[in-house]
Each structure stands twice: as C-alpha cells, then as structure tokens.
Amino acid sequence: MVTAVLNSIKMRHWALLSVIAVAASISTVDWTSATHAGAGASMRMFVNALITPDISSTTLITAGNAAWITVAYAAAAMSIAIAVGIPLGLIASGTLLSSGISNTTLMISVRAYLGFIRSIHELIWALLLVASFGLSPVVGVLAIAVPYSGIIGRVFAERLQDVPMHQLAAFESTGASSLQMVIGARIPSTLPDITSYLFYRFECAIRTAAVLSFVGLGGIGFQIHIALSDLKFETVATLMYTLVILIVVIDVFSGFVRKRMIA
Amino acid sequence: MTIESLRHPNRTWAFSLHRPSITATLIGMMAVVLIVSSWLYLGSIPSNGRLFVSSDSLARSIEFVGDLTGSHSSNSFWRHESWGDLAKLAGDTLAMSVLAAFIAGIAAFTLIPFAASNVVIVSARGPRRLFQVTIYGLTRYFFIVTRSVPELLWALIVIFVFTPGILAGALALAVHNIGVIGRLGADTVEEVEQPPIQALRTTGAGPFQTYLIGILPQITRQFLTFQIYRWEVIIRTTAVVGFVAASGLGYQLRLDLSFFRYKEVGQLILVYILIVWGVDAISALARRTAR
After folding, report:
1. Do A191 and B21 touch (CB under 8 A)?
2. 8 A C-beta contact, residue A163 and residue A192
3. A6 interfacial to chain B (CB closer than 8 Å)
4. In sequence order, what DSSP letters do the residues of B106-156 get, joined into one string?
5. Which pTM was predicted?
6. In chain B, what are the domains?
C-alpha cells in the first residue's frame, strides 16, 4: 500500500513542490533593505583583496600558526571519530552478528545513537559542551569528534552492507564464518571507498575546526574574525587562501592514495 | 552516501589486506605522526577548562542536562507560546535552507560546463585554446575558493554587503555549496562516457551542443540526487549560520546561550532535530523518485 503510494510520486510532483517551496522562501525575504548603503564599496574592497592578498611576513607567520592549530584540532578529532565510529559502524551494519533478539536490539540501538549524534551540527555540540564543561581544547576536539563518529559509523555500516554478492559468494562457499567474511571479504572490498571518504571527512573537519572560533577557540577562523573586525580585507584573503591550500593538499593526497589503492 | 559512490556508482574494487604496499605503510605512519603531534600540541595549550575533573563541574553538568531535558516545571517545554515562537523560527530556517539550495543549485549548474575540460577546452592550439584554458582555470579557481571556506566564515563576510537576515544567511550557505556542487558536477562531466559524445562530434555538433545533448542527459539524475542530498547538509548548517545572519533557530540559540537561558535551549534543539529529520525524510523520498 505505502510502497504503491510512494511509487506513484513522480518527478513532476517534486518539481511542483520545489517551485512552491522556493517561491514561499523568496517571499519571506525583505527585499527593500537587503543590502547596506555601502554594499558596492565593501564588495569591491573584498574582491580587490582576493586579487592582492597581504603577503607580509608577519601575516604569513600568523596564517601558518593558525593553519597548524586548525589542522591539529581536525586531526585529533578525526582520531577519536575513527576509533569510535568504525567499531560502532561494524555493529550497526549487522554483518558481524548472528540474528538473535539481543543482537538485533544492540544493532538498532547503535543505529539510533549514531543517528542522533550526527543530527546535531558540530557547532551546536561545541556550544553545548562548552556550556556544560567550560572552554578547553579537549571540548573543541570532542565537538567535532562526536557528530563525525556518527557520520563515519553510518557510512562504514552502509559500505559493509553494500558489498556485492559475487565478492562474498566465493568466501561463503568455503564455509567461512561471518567474522571471517567481514575480515576477509567485506572490509577489504570497502577499504578504498572508506579511505577516500575519511580523507573527505578530514577535509570537512578542517573546515569545522576553522569555525571553532565561534565558541572561543583559536585557529584560522579566529584570525579571520580579528582581521574582519579590523577591516583588514587583505589579511582575510591571505587566511582564506591558507584554508584553500590545506584543502587542495588533502584533495591531491587523497586522489593519489586512491589511485594507488585501486591499481 | 559517499561522494565516490555518486561518482562511480557501479565500480567494484580489487584490493587485498594481505599485501600492504609501501604507500599504505607510509600513509599510516604519516597519519600517526600527525595525530600524535596534534594531541601533544593541544595538550600543551594552557586552559581553564575543567573537563570531567572537579565535583563542582560535574554538578554543573548534571544541572545543565536537567535544564535541557525539561525536568523543571519552569521549562519552556511546558509553555504553549514558546512552541509557536519556535515554529516561526523553524519556518525562517527552512526558508533559508531552501533559498540556499536553490541559489547554489542554479549557479553551480550554470557554471559546471565551464569547469569541465572536455566541454570547454576544444581547440588544439592558438589564442582560442589559451582563452578556453583561462575560462576553465577561473571557474575551477572560483569553485575551490568557495568550497574551501566554510559557510560560517562566508556569513561573516556576506554581512559586510547584505543586511543580516534570511537572504544574507542563504547567500553564505549558497557560496560554499556552489563550490561543493560545482566541483563534483564538473568532475562527473569529465568522466562521462565518451562514445556517444564522439558520435555527436562527428555529426558536426559544437562543444556546447554536445554538452546539452550528449552529456547533460547522462548526468542529470546524478546531479539531482546530489543536489537533494546537499539540502540535507544545508539544513543542518542553516541553524548555525543563523548565529551570524541573525535569523531563525540559530540566532535564538545564540541569544539563549548568551543569557544562560538553558531551560529554553532543550526545546529549541528538539525542534532543530525534528526539522533535520523531516528534511532527511523528504530528501530520501525525493532521491528515491530521482533514481
């Protein structure tokens, strides 16, 4: 019944819904005072700054330091997120455990837990953790690690379930246990995907670490905050390009690793 | 759903754990060095945070959780008006996310052909090729800069030009997502099946005709699926962009936390989670149709 109703939804219904949603959203915007009086001038200043960023040695040293702080938060957070997310993902996938009532309960509760922690944005986790435990670097790390473990857990679980049957059939015919199947077939076949996904998550963690300045921790976002308050757009541009370099390095590295793993 | 599975939906891998290559060992070592030095550095930062240590902070945390979960009778969970207020704020947040997804989708979709080397770079040599390479480079540069800077930092910059509100927040979200959607779209176009395109070329179709007729139909579904999936990501972030853009649930959360009104925060986060789950459900349905 439900499936029949769901299947009867066609693309044109979604198109119509989207048009209505977009029109309703546009109508909530106050267009009469959308921009500031000096909007054009600010825009020009910012674009000029992007073309000629500040490359004085003091700014570059500040940017380098801020980059390291941001990377340190991201790497520390990823280490916890992987250490927690991968085992939880293994349980949530249901590939390891035999189907008994207690195992199914465990699987469902782990899935619910992962779903809950990843629903809340990193920065809201940060605000809640700071309000509860006070401000410290560990709180910053946990704020990223908690939702990221939820996301990594879910993606790992999905990958483990999606391993094609023909890759498993050979193992199954030898009478392998489900543990041997997971170690011998499922994990190796998901490894390239998971590795590049973890690189992508590291990239996201760097962006998230860059906005921890909103709860009062250092890094690139903190420096951008300061430079914007001083209206130093050239410094802002330098810091933005620092972030760009970090992201490009991870991207290139990830592409290289992936190529080596598939070959 | 991962980026890679969207890009290569049907690829399977041949890979063995039994012969870890030099590359794998090297990467493992680099990761260990990076993680250890990060922890050493963060441990060396002096801070007055009292994480999990004193009985005082533990008592405070317990009280905080009590405030969040509505165990007090003065908690906003038990008031009618506050539900109405939050519904309005949730509406603003939803509007901001829809607008952001719309702007990002349209802009990225328009720019994608200019960032795909197999569409835009067609001349073999000469000034035309130089011009085409420049266009390609500029579009790719635009994508990488917009993608690298997170939404919240874009919001700080956007409010120099736009007055804080739904539009400013939506633009900040859109700028980052143009980079994300655009890059993935352009990469997909570059990896598209070649034979139908060569067939079109031989009939004398120009590069943009080839794109419209030969490439676009091949990527539309993938593009739509990814666009819908991005909306899920955007709705999560919209709440926090509200901190800066001064609208929706995010702004209210910031106010409540600054004034230590923790008894209101729990309800707000509940509403936030409900709209995130609602969007996830709609998105899952829409992706089911698009597939």
Report:
1. no
2. no
3. yes
4. HHHHHHGGGG-HHHH---SSHHHHHHHHHHHHHHHHHHHHHHHS-HHHHHH
5. 0.87
6. 79-290 (1.10.3720.10)
Residues of A in contact with B96 (CB under 8 A): 25
Give the domains, in start order, of chain A with CATH numbers: 55-262 (1.10.3720.10)
Mutate which of A132, A152, A165, A230 to test chain B, going by most B C-beta atoms within 10 A? Answer: A132
Flag if B13 and A208 touch (Cβ within 8 Å).
no
Residues of A in contact with B156 (CB under 8 A): 224-225, 228
Q: What is the pLDDT of residues A46-104, one digit of tens each?
A: 999 999 999 999 999 999 999 999 999 999 999 999 999 999 999 998 887 766 778 88
Q: What is the ipTM of this complex?
A: 0.88
Find residues 130-189 of chain A whose CB sits inside 8 Å of chain B. Answer: 131-139, 141, 155, 158-159, 164, 167, 183, 187-189
Size of interface A-B (CB pairs under 8 A): 225
| Cα atoms found within 13 Å of the Cα of residue A75, Cβ hemisphere only | 21
Q: State the average pLDDT for chain B.
A: 83
Return the beta strands (E) in A29-166 as ranges.
Answer: none
Report the amino acid identity of residue B277: W
- Whole-angstrom distance, CA of residue B23 vs CA of residue B135: 36
Contact B238, B97 (CB under 8 A): yes
The pLDDT tens digits for B184-214 are: 999 999 888 778 788 888 888 887 788 888 8
DSSP B214-248: IIHHHHHHHHHHHHHHHHHHHHHHHHHHHHHHT-H
> In the beta sheet, which residues pair with residue A35?
B162
Q: How many residues does chain A have?
A: 263
* pLDDT of B246 strictly over 90: no
Say whether residue A225 is in contact with chain B using an 8 A CB cutoff: yes
